[in-house]
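Hi R.,

Here's the chain you asked about this morning:
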Amino acid sequence: MKALIQRVRAASVSSQGQLLAQIDQGLLVLLGVEATDHQQQVLNLAHKVCHYRVFSDSDSKMNLNVQQVSGALLVVSQFTLAADTKSGLRPSFTPAAAPSLAEQYYLQFIDACRAYGVQVSTGRFGADMQVSLVNDGPVTFMLQC
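And the predicted structure, written out as tokens:
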């Protein structure tokens, strides 16, 4: 399971011209689920995302997590993160989880983040979406569990 997180000043996601969600300060989380993932990884990744220290403290050190800055998460499913890109010039999506499992884990990830008290907004699973963001820093990390 992978989460590409970006520290943002603002982010939004739309589909078919309709705004689905938007946040101000927080993290944009692009979430990819692989066929070999299991439920404990979902919980571990939610914990890591909600507690990862990527926001600056008063000394300009990355010591604060999204909760500590009263930020929010915008979680967007992105199966392309599960692609195998090691060879050739076209990605292979063989490692990606089947849509039914990926959606189940996507929803469990969102619930687990909310259980930590973090405000979570979402895209629409499986939809063609347009994501806009103002990356703060820029700060971007790939988290895996």
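The chain has two helices and eight strands.

Let me know if you need anything else.
M.
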